[in-house]
Specification:
about 260 residues; mainly beta; six-stranded antiparallel beta sheet; six-stranded antiparallel β-barrel; 16 strands; globular
Amino acid sequence: MSIVTVDDIAAAIAAKKSYRFIKNITAPKAAGAFQSGWLATGFPPPGTNPPAYTAGSGYTCDRTNTGSLGQLNAAVQNWISKIAASLSQVGTLFLADRLWHCGGMGFAASTYTVTTPGSLPARITDSGQGCELWVEQNVAAGTASGTLTCSYKDCNAATQSGVIAAVVSAPVIGQMQPVPLANHLGVSQLISCTNSATWTSGSFGITILKPIVSIEIPVVGVGRTLDWASLGLPQIPTDACLFFYFLANGTTAPVAIGTIDIIDK
């Protein structure tokens, strides 16, 4: 049975499943930087490094990946009915569906073409509308300069270019940088990435994700709760690989702790 009335929501909440999390996110480089929780210790446990961009397979992610929240699939449809969170640093915690990732793109001024990138997971039925492209540092890197251009296909299968006009120099492990897209049509496939200048060391990866919810924590150590009405009752697709990332307000390593309630209706 689907959700039609508030009574349907109330009935589903009575049978909700709660998932607790605690993530020790690595220290951000600066205020205003995004920091991934994928490799962070805690619970869920840290994920594994993505396959190299030349692997040819294994790029897509689902709920069985180590590092995912690991929620049960729904009998009908999963929805987030509540999220409660507290942080040891002021900032915003994001929950997203991690769809596709690769690593090992080098530091030379060169083009790194993904081997057989494939499609997004089957749970994405809109050809990637609303999906985003992010640089993710699975390892720290050295001094960098120049631009990073990602060639990708949008949800109309048209090839586009997303350009970071000035890459972050010496990004720390876990740092994320959004790739500005050419239009608002999302991402269905990554083709390649090109550095305009050589980094002194390190490598980077690319992650395609779809944001689900965010919760802003304005006071350190004071929890905040958003219910279904505040969240808009976001859907969780079957087999979603749910993970956290963080928008920092400082350089202290944040600890995120909380609970996500999911209903099946």
